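re: ur question from yesterday

yeah so i grabbed the chain u mentioned. its 241 aa long if i counted rite. heres the sequnce exactly as i have it in my notes:
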Amino acid sequence: MTRVGHEAATHDEPHGGGMATRLNWLRAAVLGANDGIVSTAGLVVGVAGASSSRTAVLTAGLAGLFAGALAMASGEYVSVSSQRDSERAMLALERRELAENPAAEVAELARLYQRRGLAPELARHVAERLTEHDAFAAHAEAELGIDPEQLARPWHAAFASLLSFTVGAVLPLLAITLSPAQARVIVTVIAVLAALTGTGAASAALGRAPRLPAVLRNVLGGAVAMGVTYGIGSLIGASGI
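ran it thru and got these structure tokens back, copy pasting raw so excuse formatting
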């Protein structure tokens, strides 16, 4: 690879914890929107299979949107809160070990860098220099893989999940309530599959993975979900329950 080509490729690569964090947020947002699309589409298509009432479809869709968004937000809050509590506990232990036995911690840090491929003398030198600069940050990153300045944020995660799910859920809800009664299901299916194509392509791009398999998986999953719920709704509607 030429120097120019290498530099261009390097600029395309994500570097640093900040970039990794932003990519994780973007992936979570795409997945949240995808969940909103599929779950709400399955719900409203199922109700449309059972009833021709626009009010019934809209009520079910809105209930699914709010229930799903709040469930996603609360689940994310609990999960990320547990993660943050674990991070804080590990950091507190590391801070205590540094205060009680700093020499042993430097030796431990040097061993970590040796296992990563540095020569013993160089590993010791790096460990000492990093400890002099910021012992706590150096040990947290090397031993725990945690940046003390970027701990998990439960409220941010909860709000992001709520917002992304809601954005995704709005599409099938609008498609099925604004379409003519005789075409509402087919219009919704087309709109949903188009949206799933977009979210599948976006998730593949963020993960630098092949787009076609991701899109096909996404579209197939959404199609199956809508097909199953529509079939169940049609059977219930035909039975007159």
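noticed a couple things. Residues 21-239 form one domain. also Confidence is low (pLDDT under 50) at residues 1-17.
anyway ttyl
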